[in-house]
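mind reviewing this stuff:

——
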Amino acid sequence: MTRRTAFLAFSFVVVIGLLGLQSWDLARGRIEGSALRAIEERTGFAVKSLERAEIALLPLPRISLSKVAFAQHDGAVAGEALRVRVYPRLLPLLIGRLSFNRIDLVAPQLDVAVPAGSDGVTDWLTPPLAELEKLRSQSRIVIRSGVLFLRAAGTVQSIVRDVNLVIDEREQQQPFDLSGSFTWRGVPSNVSLLWPVADGGGKAALSATSPLLKLRFEGTRTGPGEPIVNGTLALSTPSVPQLLDWFGEKSRISTALGALTLNADLQLKPREASFNNAVASLDGDRLDGVMKLTDVDGRFALSGTLAGASLDLGRLIRRLPLPAIDVADRSPLDLDGWTGRDIDLRVSVDSAKLNGARLVDVATYVLVKKGRFETGLLRASAYGGAVKARFLAVGAPAGVDVKIQAGLDKVDFGQAAADVPQLARLTGTGTFQLALDGAGRTFDELLGSMTGRSSINLRQGEIGGIALAELVRRAERNPSQLLRDWQQGKTSFDTLTANAGIANGLLVLTDAQMNGTNYQLNLTGNASLRTRQLDMRASLASLSGSLRLPLVLKGPVDAPFFDVESEAFLSPTGTTGNTMVPALLGR
């Protein structure tokens, strides 16, 4: 036997001997009572009942309590554990004094009382942490395979499963040091937290990792008084809507966002978080600026100003759950679903995409208040001109009051057609204006109430799909050639002007005219916003005055028919042709 082995054996015999000198006839009750007092003093939990207590000395001294019910003094946390193990310190035990350094809660079920109506992790954690802060000292607490029930007025708000946490031992005024894992709302997560107590300051750190979130914060907390936390934040998520949904936040506007990474200097105050020097990446589009998140009377508000090089606005809009504009849908318009949180965001970028259109020097905004939603383009340049737009929806006794404004000034439609397929058959440079105002409880009511005006003015352009100038030439030379394919080709124009008034969902042309080198086209009639049907007539005349040809434009907006009316006068001598030439507009 080596000297080292002999020494260890001798030490073991001495320890057993010292333990044997204690009065163990009285020790069981004494140790059990000491264990219960230690649990209360070192965890803040008072034991209400237990089934039995067991004491083991080897391999290390421990006290095991079975089926233990416990609660904090203020009732913030209560529960029961299948087993509670208390580990005494060895050296004090040798001289007959009990001192504990670790307490294990095995398979506990914990009930945490949270404020009624609370829906955030901060509200849920505040009561139990506040109780722990009152302790003069705290043992190392190990929670294994626990379940956490968050209750408000007896109703379960949320359940945290598979809780495996370690709260390190600390003395008064020392920070909490917590680490472990849990499963919340079906998502497994790992977390570590270093947090100073309320009356003191010091280093603060938080790390959280899950399939939906990677978060790291490092900083400091100042105290006493209202605590202020300053530090650096790094956050990333593959899906902002899924992340918010995980936290119980339902937001239709957030569906516009996809993957997000955020780095910022974070300052936390009571009910306020400021993100300074923020660098956000939305699906690869970088935005820099400042943001602030506040809680006013339980209503969250997000504000900020961001700037970047590029942004795909069209992608953001396509992700929104916008309802289809369908008069057959009689379901009520739901404005509350879009205005649940206050938002005031201003975004400026050097360039942006909007459903294929390329914009430069863009300033856009989103402004949301309870019962009010507003967004638009404050400014943008596009294809040699300027673009502005505004959409406003406000709750009203009649349902939802909607205002739409849009304007293009000196825009080259030919250049825009290369990026926007809907403009592929139209060229020219000019302006477009639209103003609409209506109110209703459904889309049918809303479209039927629309009033406003619209106008378009273009110069030196073409319309594809019809050849009106060729039609005039053929009709003047040989009326029998009228049936040939004039619905193909292009029509060049010098000016195109159309003005319309809108009342009760009906658009009525007040002045619509197109002029070319050898023709003039005048258009009159109306279009229904509800049914999206056209009912218009046109007069095509040669500039020489030898021809006046009436036409009709009818049918659905998506596929209207452009026809030559029967009884069309083809010559000044009165020759007529009784032909009807159906043609899809824009074929």
The two ends are 104 Å apart (CA to CA). DSSP finds nine helices and 33 strands in the chain.
